[in-house]
Structures are given as C-alpha cells and as structure tokens.
Amino acid sequence: MRCVVVILCGLLTLLNVGCSKSAVSTAEAKERNSSLFRRAREAEQSGELKEAIRLYRTMLVEEPRTYSVHFHLATLLQDYEEDYISALYHYKQYLALRPESEKAPLAQERIRVTEQLLAPQLLRKLGDSVQGISQAYLLKENDNLKRLVTKLEGEKSMLSEEKDRAEKNATTAKNEMERLRELLNKMRTSEKLAETESAAVIAARERAATTSKTHDGKSLREMRMEAESIASDAAVRTGTKPADEAASDVLKKVQQKLDESPVTSVSSAIVKDKKGKTPAAPRTYTVQAGDSLFRVSEKMYGDATHWKKIRDANRATIDPDGRIDVGQVIVIP
Question: What share of the chain is helix, strand, coil (3-state, %, to 5)?
Fold first, then answer.
C-alpha cells in the first residue's frame, strides 16, 4: 500500500508540474502574439536595440503584467545600455510574476551578475562626482590665485615705473639746482666785478674831469697858436731854422705833453681793452624762438651770467625786464 501511495503522489506532482509548465507556455505564446512584442523582437534581432527597448517599455505601459517582456527588457538594459539598476528592477518583476518559470534560475544568475557590475559602477560614479567637485573647486581657486597674481604684478609694475619716474625727476631737479647754484654764484661774481669796474671807471672819469679843469683857460688851438708864435720868433731871432720847422718841433713837444696828461691817458684806457688793442666792431644776433637773454648769453659767451652786458648794450631796444622778441636784432658787446 505504501508503494502505491508513493507512486500516486509522484504521478500527481508530475501532473501539476506539467499543468504549470503548460500554463506558462500558453501565457508566453499569448504575449508573443502581440503586435508590439513582434515588432520589438524584430527590432532586437535586426540590431535596432534602442527601438526594441522603446517598444518593450511601451508594451509594459499598456500591459504591465506581460512578464516575458520584463525578461527581454532587463537583458537589453544589462547587456547594451549597462543600466544595471533598471535591469535589476525588471529581473525581479519577472520573478515576481512568474517564479515557477523555467527561466527563473537564469534570471537569478543574471541578478547576481548585475549586482556585481552595479557596485563598481556606483563607486566609480561617486568617485567621479567627488573628484569632479574637488577638481572644479581647485580649478576655481587656481583661477582666483592667477587673477590675484596678475593684479599684484600689474601693481608692482606701476609702482616700479612710479619709482623710476620719481628717481629721474629727483635727479633732474638736483642737476637743475646745481646749475642754478652755479649760475647764481657766477652772477654774484659778475655783479661784484661790474661794481668794481664801474667804480674804477667813475674814479677815472672824476680824475679826468679834475685834470681837465687845469686846461680850461687855454684850449688846444690857443696852445698851438702860441707855440707857433714862439717858434716863429725864435727862428727869426736865431736864424738857425725855418719858422715851419721850429713850429713843428714845438708842436711835437706840446703834443707829447698832452699825451702824457691824465685826460689823454684816461681816454686811451677807455678806448683800448686790457691787452692794449682796440676792440673790433660789435657783433649782432637775431633772436630765435625760445631765446632769452640767458640763452643768448650762453650761446655767444658760453656763460649765462653776461646777460646784463647784452641788456645794457641794447637799452634802446630791450625792455628793462630783459624781454626780447623773435626776429629782433640785438648787439652783442
């Protein structure tokens, strides 16, 4: 009896399994007869995988419980698009709808492989995100530092230029002060010499005027007439020389005395220069643009301190303040 019972149980089990397999096969055959499923399979077999994925998803929207579509879609998402999260979802939906399917072990194996592929993908994406954030932050900070360095270099260049300009201006001002100091010293020396020369000329003129007073009673003509008369009388009385020769001798002696007199010596001193030579005729100069008495003095004498000499020699044409005009002809003493 026990053997009979075991045999009956085995027959019933085989019957149930056969019936379940038959039901699954019937359901799958029904799903495959759908127009969308056929189109999706044709696209998948022809290599149009994106179109197949789109059609499978459209079919699931219209018929959510078509479990075989879940399996096909999960396979494409895993192998083609590497969308492991979506692939896991559809594998699990397939097992939930048809746990007794003959493809269930295959679905379980694919779930295990998909989970193994998903883990490094998530880590890689997370690492890329963190690295991207860090890299973006570092690049931003680097740009900020570069802009700051450029700004500081520009300010440094400007300060360096200002420093060079200030040093150049200081050197120019120092040289100008030295030149003005030398010019002032020369002007002071020139003024002292001018005062000394003026005093000497005035004293000479006074001496000449004092000496000339002694000769006011007799003019040069009278002296010559008297000399001729004396010479003529002497020649007649003695008879040694003609009257003309005697008068000539007397006139020479009178002229020699006149030359030796202070009036004649002062006049000669005024006419002649220090070397005893009569000065040449005065030079002239035509005023150019930018000229002043200082510049003209530097051009003509090599020294700007003689500007007063030029002003005094041209008092009739130059203003007392020393202003001259372009094109004006001035005398250079």
Answer: 80, 0, 20
User: DSSP labels for 92-142?
Assistant: HHHHHH-TTSTTHHHHHHHHHHHHHHHHHHHHHHHHHHHHHHHHHHHHHHH
What is the C-alpha separation between 72 and 53, in angstroms, rounded?
A: 9
- Where exactly does CATH 3.10.350.10 map onto the chain? 280-333
Summarised one tens digit per residue, pLDDT across range 70-124 is 888 899 999 988 899 999 998 998 888 888 888 889 989 999 999 999 888 888 8
Query: In a 3-state reduction of DSSP, which class is residue 324?
Result: coil
Side-chain-side CA neighbours of 2 within 13 Å: the count stands at 0
Give the relative orientation of helices 84-97 and 67-76 as an angle to the nearest 10 degrees. 160
Q: Where exactly does CATH 1.25.40.10 map onto the chain? A: 2-121
- Domain 280-333 annotated CATH 3.30.70.380: no
d(CA 298, CA 302): 4
Report field, pTM of the whole predicted structure over 0.85: no
Burial of 309 (0-12, 13-18, 19+ CB in 10 A): middle
- Superfamily of domain 2-121 in CATH is Tetratricopeptide repeat domain (1.25.40.10)
Cα 114 to Cα 13, 68, 72, 86, 119: the distances in Å are 34, 18, 15, 10, 9
Question: What would the pLDDT profile of 210-235 be if each residue is shown by its tens digit?
Answer: 554 444 444 556 655 665 566 555 55
